[in-house]
Amino acid sequence: MKHFFVLALTALSSMFVYAQSSDAELMQQWLDLESQKGKLQLSWQANEQALKNQLSLLKQEKQALNALLKTANAARSEVDTKRLALTEQQLAFEKNQQTVDAALKNAHLFVKRITPLLPPPLQNDWQTKTTQIEQTELPNSEKLERLLSMYKAADEFNQRIAIHNTNMHLPSNEGDSERLVNQIYLGLSQAWYISDDGEFYGIGRVEQSGWQWHHGAAAKQLIGSNSEGFSTDLLAIKAMLEKPTNASFIKAPLAIASIDKERL
Known about the structure:
By secondary structure, this protein is an alpha+beta fold.
């Protein structure tokens, strides 16, 4: 009986020791869990703050990107507007260029068409300038400037009486010969020529086929009843032009040809 009691006591003691050991392990496990929980909480708090900071930065970046996109869209819209305006301006320039090209082409054709109708000195000048325009690569502005200078020269020629000393091939009893004469131009449509001795004389005028000279008897025939003293009148006109201080009224022998302007 005593032996059984000892065994029972020993068993109870072992159970108590085991119970104490289990409680200690459980306590340690609980402490470990609480420690891990604390660490996790601290880690989460730290991560939560970092995530909040990162989220705040992302929001700021988003706002900045939205503002940048809005600015970019506005800038792109402005660029598109300017590009459209430049395109329209370019199209207008091209249209104007085509208009100027067509106008210059027509003006050039007109110059070539009327050049043969001009008095010989002006005719030679226009032919030279027209050839220069054709053979030289010039911008439209330069071509227009040269054409305008030609028109201006013709207008100035038409506003005055000009005398021009030159050699002409003239008919005579011995055949055609070259003579020095004084050509007197009354504007663009009428002219005369007279040699210093009055032997050779004639009338020049613009006709439908171009500028024509009529010599001697043919010139008198054009004048008709006013042909008497023809050479004397021409010598008087020549003398007056050479000495304007001796100016006086002089009868001018005119023979203007009729021209169909629709054919010019």
